[in-house]
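Q: How do we represent a protein-ligand complex in a form that can be generated token by token?
A: Start from the inputs.
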Amino acid sequence: MSASPLTGKRIVLGVTGGIAAYKAIELSRRLVDAGAHVVPIMTDAAQHFVGATTLGALASEPVQTELWNNPTTPIPHTKVGQGADLIIVAPATAKSIAAYRMGYSHDLLQNTLIATRAPVIVCPAMHTEMWEHPSVVDNIATLRKRGVHIVEPESGRLAGGDMGAGRLADPATILGAAERILGPADLTGVRVVVSAGGTREPIDAVRVIANRSSGKQGYAVAAEAAARGAQVTLVSTVGLPTPAGVQVIAVETAAEMQEAMERAAIDHDVIVMAAAVADFRPAHAASGKIKKRDGVPEIVLQPTPDILAGLGANKRDDHVLVGFAAETANLVDNAQGKLERKRLDLIVANDVSAPGVGFAHDTNAVTLLRPGAKPVEIDLATKRDVARAVIDAVVDIRNAR
Ligand code: C5P
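Then emit the structure tokens for the protein with cytidine-5'-monophosphate bound:
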């Protein structure tokens, strides 16, 4: 299994003075978890919002704040930027964006930004009026033209209770952007569609037949494919944060998922069915709410279409078709049968009865099966690590053609 593209990378995290500075602490933790060495820099204003001790404790080294008398190095204005593999400014205020645009190197962070050849990600966060002000719009456009990566703010609740565009992007989205920049681009131009989550089949106006799938593994596959340059569509029944660069199509039932996946199969190259599709649905869903006083209802079920088998039957030669198999016994035999019956190129089998594996966990342990190849076991790992192994196999299948 290949390592995260952030492993061993020196990432300077520049934090400027906005309320969203508290989110930089979570971002730092996630970067460190992914194996990066995080060098934190805070501006004076940032220290009004969060403490350097907190950020330093969750980064890889103490926070640097000083251009003068910096205890870490006598020439901090160049050393930090020269040694970076990537610089992330999160949150980036209107003032720090303006200074960067002008090359106005008045503090350690601005010196670092202009003394580097490393890629830079700027993550703006400010009130909507500021984000939409022509000066900010113009500064952002100029930075973009210079090749700076902008992770746009989201819409939502802002400081002081205001609503609108300007909220710092989710740390997961910023992490995704970093992986996209530092990772291998071995799926550039490839279109990948992933299904995720469990389907919900209506019984009546308020009740559904659902399952325990959290969608986390499917989202991790989508994020990994996007990080490696693919154009990714995610057909999802759940509302997890959208990974960077991924387009989500929201569905609920097996029928809606089938329609979305069959349409996607026309113009996508890689199809990953990670969703837990209901095998049965109520033959008739009551239009209103079934009332208790009418007694115990008899719910007649009918089978749902097997979406994956249908995609397998109509598979193009250039498609790579990937299925998942959640089993509780005879893992490899059962998964092997599905691989053949559904005409798959790869099946990801997991024993959902094992500890830490499958539904709702952040970890998974799987066996990868390909036609005519020996099973490959991936021991208990994060769902993102498992996603990396799945995408490695997809790249391998495409390269072998
Ligand atoms: O046969 P089984 O349901 O175990 O197969 C699992 C695989 O088939 C998963 O990839 C799942 O997304 C897919 N599937 C499907 N349509 C169904 C049931 C399962 O596409 N109705």
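Residues 383-400 form the longest helix (18 residues). The pocket of cytidine-5'-monophosphate is lined by residues 254, 273, 275, 277, 279, 304, 306-308, 323-325, 338 (CB under 6 Å).
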